[in-house]
Amino acid sequence: MSNDSKKLTELSRRGFLKSTAAAASVAAAPAMFVSNANAYVNAPKGKSVTLGFNVPQSGAYADEGADELRAYKLAVKHLNGEGDGGLMNTMKPMSLKGNGILGKKVEFATGDTQTKSDAARASAKRMIEKDNAVMISGGSSSGVAIAVQSLCQEAGVIFMAGLTHSNDTTGKDKRKHGFRHFFNTDMSGSALGPVLESEFGKERTAYHLTADYTWGWSQEGSIKNTTEGIGWQTAKAVRTPLGAGDFSQYITPVLNSGADVLVLNHYGKDMVNSLTQAVQFGLRDKNVNGKDFQIVVPLFSRLMAQGAGENIKGIYGTTNWNWSLKDAGSQAFVKSFGAEYGFPPSQAAHTCYVQTLLYANACELAGTFDPCAVIAALEGFKFDGMGNGPTEYRAEDHQCFKDVLVVQGNDNPSSQFDLLNVVQEVPRSQVEYSTTHLGGELGSCNNKA
Amino acid sequence: MEALLLQVLNGLDKGGAYALIALGLTLVFGTLGVVNFAHGALFMLGAFVAVSVEKVLTISSKVRDESITFFEAYKETPYLEIWWGDTGSAIIDWSVPISIIIAIPIMLAVGIAMERGLIKYFYKREHADQILVTFGLAIVIGEIIKANFGANAIPQAAPEIVAGSVDIGAAIGLDGVVYPWWRMIYLAFSLSIIGGVFAFLHMTTFGMVVRAGMHDRETVGLLGINIEKRFTIVFGLAAVVAGLAGVMYTPILPPDYNMGMDFLVLSFLVVVVGGMGSLGGAVAAGFLLGILQSFSSMTAVKEVIPGIDQVIIYLVAVAILLFRPRGLFGKD
């Protein structure tokens, strides 16, 4: 064989190997990473469009997950023109017509996140690949929300975050495809600080019990910044495993720590258990440093208040929304949800319902389900009538900015659901921060075109 | 000093649960030679007897809640309260103690059915086979509970009169040693059950035969005693002990279908540390590991070794197995 022909053979062999490798890599790639004839992933072909609702149906946040799913089902009903229309009667500006989204009937798939990131990613992946979901929504755990948000970015679908409160979701882990209506821990800290100062004074020593994952760390940091800013000391900050159940071994050291305030950076059943046990151990009856011992729960919800019963009375915290608000949007939503299920919605239900409508509205505005166009429609979108007053989806970090509620466990409930008193509606200007404050990069849009 | 005393108390109530489960495991292993991985499921079943009793006692009538005007809301009022007023409320309030009485025959029946229906076919099989079949059984029982009660933990309340805490410090001259009543009751309960089991084994003819059978099953059989029948009852007794431990633990930890598995692994370690087959060892190791786990979660300890509270029991088990392979009370 001549040198030239040998070279040719080598070249063709190399070419063959290259093309085989390329073909193999295409064949091996998951279906979700391969674009089809459409310009974007899971472009609806028939008369319907599928949304994926990924909520915890078991684990520490299962109660919130169950309420989120109720809200999603109600939102789908309203989008398809059934029921009383709920917040579609009050949302401004609104492009929805009650005939689905862009004339396509809305259907949905559901997944159980189990309050675990790996299970949440698996169920979101299943909904994108098998059910052709064009948008994923859900959460109830920032660890889960961040993991699924990142998956949606890679997959080229939109992620409308549900209940996720960690700064990181729209901070260092923000993504172009992810949007959050719920508030975050820095906003809780900014809203709560002045109330804590006026109620408990400047000379206090706080002890933190913190759920050991991204949300807990974020909330502990935000509340510490706030309390230390008003002159409080921090005795200790102790991390507890998510879903620990029995917190007694973490609570007993608080008794003799010299602290006179216990900050419970717990949510859902963890908070119900830790608060109940803290009260059982007599913390609320204690007098330390000449002051009555206080417990603070920075992130509060009516569902948790229901679980904790009497123990919640008088305790301060913040919430994204409460059913007792008197604005037209809140009342319309409570009426609609109450008629459907027989009890008022939680803040988790509210944020999930609103997110579904906001996504649908953005599709109508864009005239397509193409994620890049939908993102453009959501960025900087200003709206009202959804229960939180004037609200803006800030373009730079995809975080909604609006008023924050400081609440207190109700001492004299007027009904079985009247568990939280709204102490203050803290204006947006007090909780807003600069676009670079929490870091992170949105990255670019990924429509697989 | 106060902090140390509190952690000892914390360890004792948790240790009480470990000891009760480990006691049953050791009894079954000592008499039947079976490594029963379904024993944790019996603890969980006991807890769900309490949940079921509470559900039955609170069967309610739905009444329109007039305070809600936005939509039609209903209040649920238990029939017991409608029929008997305060007496009905008191019965509901005492649902956990009432469950103890109901749990005894139920757990005895479950234990005997489990032994006669499945375990007895595996007496002469390898330990690996026994582990596989009992582990499978534990999963099946867990899934049945999940299908009927859901995956979420269901809180149970202690009776109102013992829902608060007791100031132990005031009695012994220390400040700030406050401990919940129910946890004190749990500790006393577990000690009395342990005492009862030991008394039963040492002070009754039945117990004497069982202990003799644990030493030499063949000779006892040759004496004309039906040792198999006695061992079946021992299995039932172990199920009752685990079940009662579960019932009483519900106000401390809201039960879910998986709670048995959580306790089983730790209880096996307790048995291994105490010495396989040693009843006294199981009890002592149960309390010892409970206290160690409690101490390891103290901030001062965690600052030196972060995360030690999550692994301390496993580290101790490794150390015991390295230096004393038959456990603390095991015989060479």
- What's the shape of chain B? globular
**Could you estimate the helical fraction of the residues of chain A in percent?**
25-40%
CATH architecture group name of the largest domain in chain A: 3-Layer(aba) Sandwich
Q: Which radius of gyration of chain B do the C-alpha atoms yield?
A: 22 Å
Question: What's the average pLDDT of chain A?
Answer: 88
**SSE-based structural type of chain A:** alpha/beta
Secondary-structure topology with pairs:
The complex is a heterodimer of chains A (449) and B (332).
Chain A: H1 3-28, E1 48-55, H2 62-79, E2 105-112, H3 117-129, E3 135-138, H4 142-155, E4 158-161, E5 178-180, H5 185-200, E6 205-211, H6 214-229, E7 233-240, H7 248-255, E8 261-265, H8 268-280, E9 287-288, E10 291-292, E11 294-299, H9 302-308, E12 316-319, H10 328-341, H11 347-366, H12 371-378, E13 382-383, E14 391-393, E15 400-401, E16 404-409, E17 420-426, H13 428-431
Parallel strand pairs in A: 1-2, 1-3, 3-4, 4-5, 6-7, 6-8, 8-11, 11-12
Antiparallel strand pairs in A: 9-10, 12-16, 13-14, 14-15, 16-17
Helix pairs in contact in A: 2-11, 3-4, 5-6, 8-9, 11-12
Chain B: H1 2-32, H2 39-57, E1 60-64, E2 74-78, H3 79-84, H4 86-93, H5 95-117, H6 127-149, E3 165-167, H7 168-172, E4 178-180, H8 181-203, H9 205-215, H10 217-222, H11 227-249, H12 259-274, H13 279-296, H14 299-304, H15 308-323
Antiparallel strand pairs in B: 1-2, 3-4
